Amino acid sequence: MKDTEIVNAKIVHTMLGYEDHGVMSCYLTVEGDGWGCNYGGYALDRYDKEKRERFGTADGFNAIISLMKTLDVEKWEDLKNQFVRVESEGWGGGIVRIGHLMKDQWFSFEDFFNEKKGK
Fold first, then answer.
1. What is the torsion angle, in degrees rounded to the nearest 10, for the CA atoms of residue 118, residue 15, residue 46 and residue 48?
2. H or E stretch including 115?
3. What is the distance, to the nearest Å, from the Cα of residue 95 to the centroid of all Cα atoms in its chain?
């Protein structure tokens, strides 16, 4: 893993819904001093081959709840314009986790889903 840094940022856009490929996902677009990055992109649903449909999962729903609790919001819509901290891999890298601006509360999609898989 690359070296990381923690910087302040602002959530300027949110997306919760189906991507172009029909996968339920979410993204937070965050911007800092001269940079911007999307965070998210994990599948919040699963595909059932027999029924040829996608269905929501408890893990996907709980990831959204954990993210919202971490950032102290009661509605998804309240995420936009929130100031947050992000742990970033820097220029050319991604966001590792996102945190509350004032409290020591952090959320990582990767850690959340790895924990659910038992990794």
1. 180
2. helix 109-117
3. 9
pLDDT digits (tens, 9 = 90+) for 79-112: 999 999 999 998 888 999 999 999 999 999 999 9
Distances in Å between the alpha carbon of 113 and those of 16, 80, 118?
A: 17, 24, 9
CB 82 within 8 A of CB 73: yes
Spatial neighbors of 57 by CB under 8 A, at least 6 apart, are 44, 45, 46
- Where would I find the beta strands (DSSP E) of the chain? 5-18, 24-32, 35-40, 45-48, 53-56, 83-88, 95-100, 106-107
**Long-range contacts: 51-54, Cβ < 8 Å, 24+?**
54/22, 54/23, 54/24
Q: CA 89, 93, 99, 102 torsion: positive or negative?
A: positive
- The CA distance from 72 to 107, in Å, is 12
